[in-house]
Amino acid sequence: MRKRSGWAGVVAALISLTVTADYREHPEAQAWLERVVARHDLSADEVRGLLASAQRQPAILDAIARPVERTLAWHEYRAIFLTEERIRQGVEFARRHDEALARAEERYGVPAPYILAILGVETSYGRNTGRHRVLDALATLAFDYPPRGKFFGSELEQFLLLAREQGLDPLTLTGSYAGAMGYGQFIASSYRHYAVDFDGDGVADLFHSPVDAIGSIANYLARHGWRRGEPVAVPAAVTGRVDSAAWQGRLKPWVEVERLDRQGLRPAHRLDGEAEVAPLALEGADGQEYWLGLHNFYAISRYNHSVLYAMAVHQLAEALEAEL
To answer: Which pLDDT belongs to residue 12?
Structure first.
């Protein structure tokens, strides 16, 4: 089990430091600090010390303004994740952790290839977990990104609670530009609510334990509605005139297969006519692709609310399953 270090002693030393443009004087940060300290009985001086250390990162603001899910067509996005190398790495990872994957599939009902695919898309199976200091990322987005300041302020609060609960040093933890952490890139609130100790060492450790990450991803999907034994998505053929503009942004199944068939979109594989699906239109390399997302597709999209992300996970899972 990894060595733990509390953060109270570390931040105490920071209080006397003069840090240029720290967040102690930011009006949004001041209000946030008062709320958080009162709500969780934290030391105001310790939290001020953390804000003194947090540094505004313009590169993070640039990155969140241009996420790849909004700038790339499906065929461009797909090419990033559906590669021979990522499939090979996934097969190797699966062979090293076959027992944990089988156990997670049995307990949570999520097939091993989908657990693997999320690990593959998120961090290349733990190879790229992010180089931004989480404290900087969350403070920057909480106090200098108004469109989602409330959300990231809540995540910064959750991050402090996570550090306190697990004895982690919040000054050293790194992750993505949005503050996601570890093998599966869990944000702090997800870490606290869905991470599980799957290797039995008494700690849910998503930074160092691939086995905990396997169990935690399966738990996350199960808690977000994964249906054991059901399909994820099927391609569809156009048999009439379809209005794909009416579907944009609708990932939760909302229309019955029979009704959609009458409107000109038919599943390529047999589905129950009363099953609800979300019709999807994606820009493929050879033209428009049509798909029908089912409830498990929607469960994947709760990990990242993007049709491109969910489809990349689905297709990578299919590619991995073919090799396992």
So the answer is: 37
